[in-house]
Amino acid sequence: EIKACIFDLDGVLCDTAKYHYLAWKRLAGELGFSFTEAQNERLKGVSRMDSLEILLEIGHVKCTQKAKEEMAEKKNRWYVEYINKMDQSELLPGVLDFLEECRENGLRTALGSVSKNAGVILERLKLQDYLDAVVDGSQVSQAKPDPEVFLKGAKRLGTDPSACVVFEDAAAGIEAARRAGMKSVGIGDPGILCQADYVIPGFEKFHAEMLDQWF
Ligand code: G16
Ligand code: MG
Questions:
Q1: What is the interface pTM, i.e. ipTM, of the complex?
Q2: What are the positions of the active site (predicted)?
Q3: Which residue stretches of the chain are H helix?
Q4: Fewer C-beta neighbours within 10 Å, C or N terminus of the chain?
Q5: Residues 6+ apart with CB under 8 A from 164
Q6: Helices 171-179 and 148-157, interaxial angle, to 10°?
Q7: What's this model's pTM, rounded to 2 decimal places?
């Protein structure tokens, strides 16, 4: 029986995935190469520095550690410019209704994001009161596909991992859920999220009772 829902942030509760992409694309442009949305799939759910490594590999760019740190900082500045302008209208369709349904059905809720910017985003989206626990990039040492972020969330909620379902838009996040011993629901493309137990297009037509039917 499912007792808790753990939500990824970027691409699940809001569409910040597009801002990460735009910021990385801008960095790639400055370095003189193009960066496509398909290539961006590899960066989803991956930490900032690991994302940079993947981007530099795609562009065949080699540089010093110091230059890398400056690049990551630059990308983050552009990203923060985008998220500082966000408001509740950028919550993805159906998210607020589903979070309310979780409350009504006695399901515990947690955020499981490796983003160091998660706190700012939750504040701008006014989501703090809907989440019983928040685990973000400031509290984990391993990014997805490592299960650390989700296991911490379950621990914080006091829920056994086997009674948790993870909602994720990234292949790395689905793998992390599996490694944590949790159920998973992919949000997005079933081709990319083929490891998930179920894949849905979004929360719009999704209801808490489906969790009882599925798991
Ligand atoms: C998110 C994104 C990743 C991003 C990572 C680090 O993880 O999906 O693309 O690289 O956070 O973000 P930041 O640079 O803000 O620390 P998640 O776990 O929310 O999907
Ligand atoms: Mg995500």
A1: 0.90
A2: 8 (nucleophile), 10 (proton donor/acceptor)
A3: 17-31, 37-40, 48-58, 65-83, 95-104, 118-125, 148-157, 171-179, 209-214
A4: N
A5: 2, 3, 4, 5, 6, 150, 153, 154, 157, 180, 182, 183
A6: 60
A7: 0.91
